[in-house]
């Protein structure tokens, strides 16, 4: 009984996912380039004694990249995480985590053998107590330090190639803000030079899988610090909304009475401080964001540039996007045409799927509409509306996966922008996740959406949709095959009858009215064929 209780406690207190594991942010780990901590459950490296995993060399993808990043060896994020570590824990079965101390998404239990599917719900369908609990969880995450992770405050070169570690503590909420910043920041080239056309989480195929992992990790952190294992992120269904329906003090904060760019003092979020919003300052200093406070959340929904984003997305925009059959196309960046990913991300017109970076549709439209902290890519996760928004974007991705049922091979294996090939590891996550691992239905990852749990008839219609679409594409061939089959059947039937007449010589007067049952079955089968 004691052993069971200890095992259960270890599962509850297991390390969760983030950036640099605290146990590996030291001189020894950086110089040896090894991050293989012991699992607390048995004290062995990666839980090897319990068959959870083992310390292994990292296998990097050798697939060619697209032309968008013409450098090599200048950015710590290239071939992630090999600049910092080239050996990490490789976990077995359903185990996961930097020490193999966790269960994979969608599994639970002491041995990670119990399947589970949790439901993300519409924030407006939550009861008052559920909604208040969610807001309290957000505030707790903003005020509790991350136990297992730290952030880097310098590049590997600035750390003197590992001999001078530069890391600092950070609270749980800001850990995720920093990770979003780090994945999308510019490349520092030395002097005052930077390269802006790089992003490991946006503008390329990995946009949707990356944010899917981000939300799963965030959910797990909240489950851990609160002990609420059933917690899921609510979503805001913004289709056809006339304004920001969650921008009031009951939900995510209303407008300040005297300064429309700030939040109402009645909202708990009005006291929050943002981090990682001064990208030009970091670039000029050739420095990383150090997660120091940079002022309050800014938000002025609807007072954005209307020429760029005239309105919030409509249901028709979403339905057109879902009708696109190609996940990715062309250069696989923000110039891609007829790409589901690029249209949902918002760089292609939601009515034509033609790339138009001067306009912001769907996902991008929400960010621009908020007209504040959420409108700048690197610091957008500072605004907690980011979570509600991206949960709904992920639900649209999920609808596309269920409708079109793509094979893994649909996700590009090569020639995508840096970091976005199928087998590339996502920046800056440790433990390691490949892009292709999250190009799968959400139920396989342990969660679903309330509004997608439809009646059986609708599910059956969704199941038939991709096959009907394929049938339309080959309809002419099917008709031709049917006509040809009918002609062949008629000719064969005629030949059979002629042969019988010639062989048997039976007169028409004494022919039986019915054919032998065996012959009848043969003719019927041929006709059906």
Automatic annotation (TrEMBL):
Molecular function, one GO term? metal ion binding
Location comes to:
Melanosome membrane
Sequence intervals crossing the membrane: 474-496
The cofactors required by this protein are:
Cu(2+)
- Coiled-coil regions, chain positions: none
EC number annotated for this UniProt entry? 1.14.18.1
Q: Its GO CC terms?
A: melanosome membrane
Q: What is this protein called?
A: Tyrosinase
One GO BP annotation of this record? pigmentation
**What membrane topology is given?**
Single-pass type I membrane protein
Source organism (scientific name): Poecile atricapillus (Black-capped chickadee)
Domain Tyrosinase copper-binding, residue spans: 202-219, 383-394
Which SUPFAM superfamilies did the record assign? Di-copper centre-containing domain
**Signal sequence interval, chain numbering:** 1-18
**Domain of life assignment:** Eukaryota
Q: Which Gene3D superfamilies match?
A: Di-copper center containing domain from catechol oxidase
Family membership noted in the UniProt record: Belongs to the tyrosinase family.
> Region Disordered: which residues?
287-313
Question: Which keywords does this chain's UniProt record carry?
Answer: Copper, Glycoprotein, Melanin biosynthesis, Membrane, Metal-binding, Monooxygenase, Oxidoreductase, Signal, Transmembrane, Transmembrane helix
Does this entry carry the keyword Cell division?
no
Which is a Pfam family this sequence falls into?
Answer: Tyrosinase
Looking at its record, which EC class is this enzyme? oxidoreductase
